[in-house]
Amino acid sequence: MALDIKICGLKTDDATTAALAGGASHVGFIFFARSPRYVEPAAAGRLRQAAIGKALAVAVTVDADDAFLDEIVEKMRPDMLQLHGTETPERVAEVKARYGLPVMKVFSVSEAGDLERLQPFIGVADRFMFDAKPPKGSQLPGGNGVAFDWRILAGLDAGLDYMLSGGLNAANIGDALRSANPSAIDISSGVESGPGVKDPALIEQFFRAVRAARDDRAA
Question: 75, 96, 116, 149: least buried by Cβ within 10 Å?
Fold first, then answer.
């Protein structure tokens, strides 16, 4: 099974180059002002040029209004929109219709019951992402470097298309792949030397760990 890999929260040429060199299928740019990974739409538009023909560029937003989404779509030209806030199924449908782009809806989870919120979005969102619930006091909906019990995803429909996120890094990616068997993974803080500072060496290390984990499973 092919494994999509998204490196999220990119802000620099070096990090974007490392993500693409490693074989990222998706590169993510964050448009949430309180995040240390925030990037201006025009800057993301310049960085995403390197991904054309190599990876899909994803615009990550949190309850963004139409005016901000208009600016992002115009200046960045994303291939996909990721909604990481409290968006309803109706809002997801509105965004899809307005921009004609696929939408990935994110859910923060910590226990199996959290997955029940998914049902109204099935058939509306094009893909899902499961991230760990933010720790108490965090102002960020994602990118907090915390994981959840991946085993709770075992009960999901086998055909559900989702990305696994939350606290992934080179040390635990093997366990994550064995526990959840996702078709896609997303990493941000796990390849950083500091908040919002992507480290090309850590990105390369993560890709090596993914390859090693997959080789072990295939053996």
Answer: 116
Per-residue tokens: 192: 């950083």
**Burial of residue 163 (number of CB atoms within 10 Å: 0-12, 13-18, 19+):** buried
CA–CA separation, 30 vs 26, rounded Å? Answer: 13
Residue 74: which residues within 8 A CB-CB, separation 6 or more? 41
Say if pTM beats, i.e. exceeds, 0.90: yes
Based on DSSP, count helices (H) and strands (E) in the chain, helices before strands.
6, 10
Regions in the chain scoring below 50 on pLDDT:
135
Distance CA 5, CA 27 (A): 8
Task: Give Cα 174 to chain centroid, integer Å.
Answer: 18
What count of other Cβ atoms lies within 10 Å of the Cβ of residue 217? 11
In a 3-state reduction of DSSP, which class is residue 193?
Answer: strand
